[in-house]
């Protein structure tokens, strides 16, 4: 309430000197800079609009992608540059960048944001429809607008530029990257390309289509930031290995799930699936990997509220986390039905286990314990 009063007071003071439109724009910019703190290290110096901030590549992801352009001859073209986050990242590794957007305001924000990052001398902006661009393109980054039809769409056919142009871009250029929503319908649409799913702090942020000289050997890759863990494989070379619920259960990072690499990861970590239609993994050993979140199994429960309530009455906790993937569950209703009269935290996972729906009572394992397990393995003769 105090912050709202302070903001209203500030607006009133500013309107004594400036027009209402300018004050409104200034207050919006202040709000967006605060919201951008988790995305950009220099958010307080940058320029945003609401859509531009929402669609902007987070700094950590942009920096990671920029590294692939290190051996490319410039200039690198950043098509549909938005507020310029990818342009800035590529320029920060010493590359000359031409940033293109049909919005003059977007080009202006890109220039101002480049100045904030001290790379403005390496970034040139062109205000143009990228589909009308006549310049020869060698290496490109493209971020199609997913709101071209007025609302967000996951269909590449509805993006601007559309799927047809993106395919022509792949044929036309020596190499590059196309940034897509991880929820978009990219499967089967880009032959001879590498599709990389990238997560940041456990949230899948984007699908990047690498093509030409910048594509990797495998068609699918998942990369987890900030750890840098990466897994590339052909999903069709790995098959589900289903086993019984063991001592530990593992929640797989969403980038690996979306890339279809759960079985490749299971093979690498020597784990098994709970069910061939379930992404949770299980095993008798505690695995320390940024690709999975481990839980210690406490009990296997039948999937009915009576048995679940009884378990948590007999083994009470103060805080209960409920997780599920493919089983439809009214989480709020279920949580309200379970008494929370103890201490500590527990997790209830609703999973498919050997073809049946089950509840699994578990406790999340903190990273220190997982690291200690890794040290014990290292010390073994």
UniProtKB/TrEMBL annotation:
InterPro entries: RNA_cap_Gua-N2-MeTrfase, SAM-dependent_MTases_sf, Thump-like. The keyword Transferase applies. Keywords: Transferase. One of its GO terms (biological process) is 7-methylguanosine cap hypermethylation. Transmembrane segments: none annotated. The keyword Transferase applies. GO terms for molecular function: methyltransferase activity. Residues 293-359 form the THUMP-like domain. This is Mg-protoporphyrin IX methyl transferase.
């Amino acid at each position: 309430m105090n912050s709202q009063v302070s903001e209203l007071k500030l607006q009133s003071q500013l309107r004594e000197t400036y027009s209402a439109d300018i004050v409104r724009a200034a207050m919006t910019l202040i709000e967006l800079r605060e919201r951008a703190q988790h995305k950009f290290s220099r958010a307080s110096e940058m320029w945003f609009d609401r859509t531009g901030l929402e669609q902007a590549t987070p700094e950590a992801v942009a920096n990671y992608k920029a590294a692939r352009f290190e051996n490319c001859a410039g200039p690198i073209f950043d098509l549909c540059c938005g507020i310029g986050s990818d342009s800035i990242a590529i320029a920060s590794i010493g590359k000359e960048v031409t940033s293109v957007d049909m919005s003059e305001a977007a080009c202006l924000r890109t220039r101002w944001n480049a100045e904030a990052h001290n790379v403005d001398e390496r970034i040139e902006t062109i205000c143009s429809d990228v589909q009308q661009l006549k310049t020869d393109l060698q290496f490109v980054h493209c971020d199609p607008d997913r709101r071209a039809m007025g609302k967000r769409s996951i269909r590449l056919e509805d993006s601007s530029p559309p799927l047809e142009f993106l395919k022509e871009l792949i044929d036309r250029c020596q190499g590059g990257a196309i940034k897509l929503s991880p929820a978009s319908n990219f499967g089967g649409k880009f032959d001879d390309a590498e599709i990389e799913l990238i997560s940041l702090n456990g949230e899948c942020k984007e699908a990047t289509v690498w093509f030409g000289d910048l594509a990797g050997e495998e068609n699918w890759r998942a990369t987890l930031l900030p750890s840098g863990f990466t897994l590339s494989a052909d999903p069709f070379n790995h098959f589900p290995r289903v086993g019984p619920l063991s001592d530990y259960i593992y929640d797989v990072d969403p980038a690996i799930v979306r890339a279809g690499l759960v079985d490749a990861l299971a093979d690498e970590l020597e784990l098994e699936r709970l069910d061939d239609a379930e992404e949770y993994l299980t095993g008798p050993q505690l695995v320390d990997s940024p690709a999975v979140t481990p839980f210690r199994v406490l009990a296997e429960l039948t999937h009915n509220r009576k048995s679940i309530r009884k378990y948590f009455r007999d083994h009470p906790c103060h805080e209960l986390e409920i997780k599920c993937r493919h089983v439809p569950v009214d989480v709020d209703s279920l949580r309200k039905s379970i008494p929370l009269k103890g201490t500590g935290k527990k997790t209830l996972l609703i999973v498919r286990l050997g073809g049946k729906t089950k509840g699994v009572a578990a406790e999340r394992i903190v990273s220190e314990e997982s690291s200690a397990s890794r040290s014990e393995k290292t010390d073994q003769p």
